[in-house]
Prior knowledge:
2 copies of one chain form a homodimer.
Chain A: H1 4-22, E1 27-28, H2 30-37, H3 41-49, E2 61-62, H4 63-73, E3 80-85, H5 89-96, E4 105-112, E5 121-122, E6 125-126, E7 128-129, E8 141-144, H6 151-160, E9 165-168, E10 181-184, H7 187-201
Parallel strand pairs in A: 3-4, 3-8, 4-7, 8-9, 9-10
Antiparallel strand pairs in A: 1-2, 5-6
The structure holds nicotinamide-adenine-dinucleotide (2 copies).
One nicotinamide-adenine-dinucleotide (NAD) sits between chains B (85-91, 111-114, 117, 130, 145-148, 150, 154, 169-171, 187-188) and A (93-94, 97, 99).
Amino acid sequence: KIPEPTIERLPLYFRCLSEFKKNDVAIVSSEEIAVHTGLKASQFRKDLSYFGEFGIQGLGYPVSHLLDRIAGIMQLNKKHRAALFGAGNLGAALLHYPGFANWGFKFTNVFDNDAEKVGQKLGELTIENIASLPRMLDVSIGILAVPANVADETSRLMVKCGIKAILNFTGTKLSLPEDIVIRNVDLTNELAILIYYLISRG
Amino acid sequence: KIPEPTIERLPLYFRCLSEFKKNDVAIVSSEEIAVHTGLKASQFRKDLSYFGEFGIQGLGYPVSHLLDRIAGIMQLNKKHRAALFGAGNLGAALLHYPGFANWGFKFTNVFDNDAEKVGQKLGELTIENIASLPRMLDVSIGILAVPANVADETSRLMVKCGIKAILNFTGTKLSLPEDIVIRNVDLTNELAILIYYLISRG
Ligand SMILES: NC(=O)c1ccc[n+]([C@@H]2O[C@H](COP(=O)([O-])OP(=O)(O)OC[C@H]3O[C@@H](n4cnc5c(N)ncnc54)[C@H](O)[C@@H]3O)[C@@H](O)[C@H]2O)c1
Ligand SMILES: NC(=O)c1ccc[n+]([C@@H]2O[C@H](COP(=O)([O-])OP(=O)(O)OC[C@H]3O[C@@H](n4cnc5c(N)ncnc54)[C@H](O)[C@@H]3O)[C@@H](O)[C@H]2O)c1
């Protein structure tokens, strides 16, 4: 089993190696990776060791080959379809962001309960009424951007639609079956932690 | 020195205790905290031990007292002024979010370089031209929501304006002086990690 902190660093290595590739760099050392990511060179070598041997002794790491391997591990070459729940400020910002497509990610549905929003366009999609659910959706990922007080019920509805992984922005702990992958992004927490470090440096 | 994972859990305890207080619960056990936050009861006790003695032997933790102590530790009672850099989709969603005010956080300025946006209203603020900087801003926190390719130069400009802490959404590593607190929120990484766990459960 690969430790979670290692998984969390893989996208950073991927982005960093993509920059090297863009600049036609063929081979990099772990020290160069360290400088660009702010992580330790020994950490980079250790993280990669979970996935097999990559470096060429005395030379370094072949950029293209390593990029393909990480893309394979993270399944970045595959297409991932996702549904957005909550067409509010944050939902709209996520839907409009072109960067997600680089990771093979595509929004295919967006749901809301606001009668004034249903039927409107958001990006290339038309906002659907959440009351039309549950039905099986051809998506594996759900983005939860509804108000916190309806987070739980909406997440249970997502699971009834066949969604297996949820990116949860509501700051609420979701109680879902074990097999559902949940990733919590809490912007309020991030701010509170920033303030703590600002004051404690003070 | 308090470990970073402990600091990162404090807002979760604060939110959980606030719920208990709202429901007029006077005393809670660490087990009840564990159920509501999804964290281990032993972790809660260990985290609190860094800040002194809180529990009453055999009774539990007094909710109001503990809330005040955590608010004090996290400086949540103080007002924190912040400037937003980048009045785009994400910046607008952050600025419109009422939840930040609960943590004493207030946007006082918003800067952009788009001539069509400068002078427009965003919430209660008027978008200012970033070309008017540097000047000393009466803010301690900066939110960085500009495109990745101008992240570095914009962050250096923020530091010249007296900003001491930056919440960075650009996914770019910032190279700033040691005394500047940086917190990186990378939504693309979160998505990539979610996909990895979805596939590896596969
Ligand atoms: N905007 C931010 O910067 C920010 C920061 C921290 C946390 N959050 C969290 O992210 C979530 C979204 O925030 P936001 O700023 O976009 O809020 P918002 O109010 O702008 O959007 C919420 C959307 O959800 C819809 N909605 C309400 N009930 C629904 C239901 N039962 N089913 C489907 N849709 C429903 C609303 O009609 C609205 O369009 C919230 O949980 C919020 O606490 C947002
Ligand atoms: N929207 C998302 O869901 C999302 C997801 C992941 C990462 N991000 C990152 O967050 C940041 C903001 O994303 P967004 O979706 O709001 O982008 P956006 O393009 O909607 O907004 C960027 C804003 O920055 C302004 N800007 C450009 N150059 C500037 C400069 N030199 N000085 C000041 N302002 C400048 C633009 O005029 C625009 O208003 C980007 O770095 C993006 O990579 C956003």
